[in-house]
Amino acid sequence: MMIYEEIKKLFLEEFQQEPMLVRSSGRVNLIGEHVDYNGGFVLPAAIDKSAYVAIAPAESQIGKWISMDLKKKTEVDFGVFKPLADHRWANYILGVVEQFAKRGLSVKPFHCVMSGDVPIGSGLSSSAALESAIAFGINEMNNLGLDRTALAQLVQQAENEFIGVKCGIMDMFASLRGKENHVLRLDCETLDYQYFPLSLGDCKIVLFDTGVKHNLVDSEYNVRRSQCEEGLAFFRKKFDNAVQNLSQVPLAWLQASRSQLNPVVYNRCQYVIEENQRILSACEDLQAGRLEDFGIKMTATHEGLRHLYEVSCQELDFLVDELWHESAVLGSRMMGGGFGGCTINIIKMEAIDGLFAKLSTRYEQKMGKKLKMYSVVTANGTEIING
Ligand code: ADP
Ligand code: MG
Question: Is 116 in the pocket of ligand 1 (CB under 6 A)?
């Protein structure tokens, strides 16, 4: 049975009414890492791993929410927005409901059943998938008329304020606006976006999950942000406020300033400036169907993140080092904030199983951990399923 059929069945058993079924994707980011807060572009795609919700109005102020995967059930009073200590998953829904209320939009109390196949906590954004599905369902059920960009902003705010995760808008934007066989180039500042074709031919997108999450993530993230701010302040002072963000700084300005910048800040700036240029030429590669060139840029991003931005870790580097010279591997890099999570790879289909067998054995020997693999295809954004 498909996941949406299972949640529908459970919904009918529990509530004896026909629910609306909504699907919303997890996401990958092909290139454009750590540039969102530097005024640059990101290049995500929605994937075929999704969150699913069945949703319908409740007869009173009390909604019953069920997580099929966690086998948990909770009752929620729609008059109160207080985080539920022992139902963390429900807070992702509650935070979204609260944002509608904060916008003065009235949401009818609802029952829901949810499930999904986005791996949780691996960097494929299961949280944004869940929140986007709920937001889309609420918007439809109550005829509130928000467009997908407004929903993405609402979801981001829900995650920032209710969950307390200071994420950018990429994940929810990709989940809501993804398009099959395409990547989405998003300007995180203006929210301008453009689709580029992703014709993978005999290749596939494959993720290798290190299974680790070093707890440097948050502290180092804040350090990178302030180093970038230091760099930007320098260029704005030196060049009379001619740039608004680090991504706009020409490489020549940087090179001419080597002696005046702290060497670490210099490296951080170099990564950001190069990455922003890389993403622009990577999009040209896609338009021209030059997948090999695109892949090389992904690997170059990894090298930048590793040596200049210094947000990689030995597990991620190991996975990239083992693969990048393989002729069947077009590109390989760490994905996401760093210090753990997945690598994203473009690999020739027929070589995937063999490479994984070899890689997982070596990974277990060297790192003492199991390696997981997820093979994904691109998918459309949030949609209602007629099931
Ligand atoms: P990710 O990188 O996958 O987004 P997060 O820690 O941001 O990781 O979000 C994961 C959380 O989202 C889970 O701990 C859970 O509370 C909620 N969640 C996501 N998918 C599901 C699901 N299928 N069922 C229940 N809760 C889910
Ligand atoms: Mg998340």
Answer: yes
Beta strands in 163-295, from DSSP E residues, in sequence order: 182-187, 193-197, 203-213
Could you tell me if the CB of 69 is within 6 A of ligand 1?
yes
Selection from 31, 52, 213 nearest residue 121 by Cα: 213
**Which of 50, 120, 130 has the most ligand 1 atoms within 8 A of CB, as the residue to mutate?**
120
Model's pTM, two decimal places? Answer: 0.96
> With pLDDT > 90 as the criterion, what percentage of the chain qualifies?
96
Using the Cα atoms of residue 133, residue 138, residue 143 and residue 148 in order, give the sign of their dihedral.
Answer: negative
Is 115 a pocket residue for ligand 1 (Cβ < 6 Å)?
yes
- Tell me the average pLDDT across 5-28: 98
Regarding the beta carbon of 123 and ligand 1, being less than 6 Å apart is answered yes
Closest residue to atom 17 of ligand 1, CA basis: 89
Please say if 317 is a catalytic residue. Answer: no
Residues 371/208, Cβ–Cβ less than 8 Å: yes
Q: What is the mean pLDDT of residues 11-17?
A: 98
Are 188 and 277 contained in the same domain?
Answer: no
CA 40 to chain centre: 16
Q: Please give the pLDDT value at position 387.
A: 77
pLDDT at 267 over 80: yes
Q: Is the pLDDT of residue 123 over 80?
A: yes
Q: Are residues 330 and 309 in the same domain?
A: yes
Q: Which residues on adjacent β-strands are paired with residue 57?
A: 110
Q: How many Å lie between the centroid of ligand 1 and the Cα of residue 378?
A: 20
Total domains present in the chain: 2
Check residues 67 and 85 and name the one with the higher pLDDT: 67
How much is the mean pLDDT over the chain?
97
Q: Are residues 338 and 262 in the same domain?
A: yes
Domain holding 245, by residue range, is 203-376
CB atoms closer than 10 angstroms to residue 155: 31
| Same domain flag for 214 and 189 | no
Residue ranges with CB less than 5 Å from ion ligand 2? 125, 127
Query: Among residues 36, 171, 209, 285, which one is catalytic?
Result: 171
Residue 166 has a pLDDT of 85
Answer yes or no: do 108 and 242 share one domain.
Answer: no
